[in-house]
Amino acid sequence: MVGRIEPLAPADLAAAQARLDDLTKPPGSLGRLEEVARRLAAIQRTTRPAIRRKRVYTLAGDHGVTEEGVSAFPREVTPQMVLNFLRGGAAINVLTRHVGAEIAVVDVGVDYDFGGAGGLIHAKVARGTRNLARGPAMTRDEALRAVGVGEELAARAAADRVDLLGVGEMGIGNTTPASAILAAFTGLTPDEVVGRGTGVDDAGLRRKADAIARGLAVNRPDPTDPLDVLAKVGGLEIAAMTGLCLGAAARRLPVAVDGFISTSAALVAVRLAPAAADYLFLSHLSQERAHIRMVEHFGHNPLLVLELRLGEGTGAALAMSVLEASAKILSEMATFGEAGVSNREG
After folding, report:
1. Which of 88, 94, 105, 321 gives 20 to 30 Å between its CA and that of 82?
2. CA distances from residue 1 to 57, 148, 231, 247 in whole angstroms, order as listed
3. What residues have CB less than 8 Å from 58, skipping those under 6 apart?
4. 174 close to 238: Cβ distance less than 8 angstroms
5. What is the SS3 string spanning 272-293?
6. 76 part of the active site
7. What are the residue ranges of helices labelled H in 3-62?
8. Mean of the per-residue pLDDT values for the chain?
């Protein structure tokens, strides 16, 4: 899969830029819409990109590190919210309906038996991770199996002729592994990578930093081996999102990446295959304070600043409308010649 990911071709990017510069507007006047349009065009290898079908994958998993008191909510909330997604009552349901996207909910590692719950994609690798503060969160095999779940989701989307993917998550306690991943790759201290997540108080913030410090000490994740980092301090839904980012890039599918936790998965993907970054669009800048430190490792900034910190794929859903608008600008606007409008040269 990683070997099939190609960087965007400079010739495709140049062709898209040439058409952007010939549209009836001053060059660059549509700001970042033009940057997004240029990349979408190069991904689809056309100067008239189109987004007809959109899908958000919301991946769910539980985390053993909640034993350390790192979340303001009990882990029972994870399956309760999954059932809420299936009933259509969560924020992600509202926003996907708003932007005309499908939502697909995936159980990768929830510590709950959903039986034959309709509408749920059953892909459980394990009933949650182990406590990363005391040992590896996953075995390497479990991490690889979760990555494979994400890769299969990307393949399913490509077979369904989806043009744009969004990725988000649900998992009580998952800001802690996301922060640990950032610390493992960058050498930032636990105090620098933790945030308040679901709203922990100062004591909860100290417990998160302490859990990460112990997790890094006991596991010693190797930053030169992204799968080692993912297995030792990551999460099942995070691993699946990594696989989805890689699988989508291998199939030239653009992905709107949600906030802090989703970006940690994308960071692992880019460490495994740097060219995958060309296919990933960071949807928004999270209120989680270390998100800006993750963003620094991508070649582009988030599209929206809305002070979101919910997850679920909410920011990704909202960003889909920006990506769709960018594609329409490039495809539907008239050129100076077509409109009979004089350009700067007269």
Report:
1. 321
2. 20, 10, 19, 7
3. 85, 92, 103, 104, 105, 106, 168, 169, 170, 312, 313
4. yes
5. HCHHHHHHEEECECCCCCCHHH
6. no
7. 10-22, 32-44
8. 96
Dihedral of the alpha carbons of 259, 314, 280, 265, in degrees to the nearest 10: 50
Give the rounded distance of the alpha carbon of 297 from its chain centre.
Answer: 14
| % residues pLDDT > 90 (the chain) | 95
User: Which listed residue (296, 312, 338, 345) is catalytic?
Assistant: 312
CA distances from 244 to 33, 237, 269 (A): 25, 10, 9
Q: Whole-model pTM? A: 0.97
Residue 2's pLDDT is: 84
Residue 100: what pLDDT?
A: 98
User: Residue 98: what pLDDT?
Assistant: 98
Closest CA to 56 of 89, 99, 118: 99
Q: What is the pLDDT of residue 249?
A: 98
Type of residue numbered 44: Q
Low-confidence ranges of the chain (pLDDT < 70): 344-346
State the Cα–Cα distance between residues 110 and 142, nearest whole angstrom: 14
For residues 197 and 175, is the Cβ–Cβ distance under 8 A? yes
What's the CA gap between 58 and 244, in Å, rounded?
11
Q: Which of 4, 13, 65, 6 is nearest to 36 (CA)?
A: 13
Q: Is 187 left (phi over 0), alpha (psi -120 to 50) or beta?
A: left
Give the number of other CB atoms < 10 A from CB of residue 220: 10
Asked if residues 226 and 297 have their Cβ atoms less than 8 Å apart, the reply is no
Q: What is the DSSP string of 154-221?
A: HHHHHHTT-SEEEEEEE-TTTHHHHHHHHHHHH---HHHH---TTT--HHHHHHHHHHHHHHHHHH--
Is residue 166 a contact partner of residue 101, using CB atoms and an 8 Å limit?
yes
Backbone angles phi, psi at 302, to 5 degrees: -60, 150
pLDDT attached to residue 346: 56
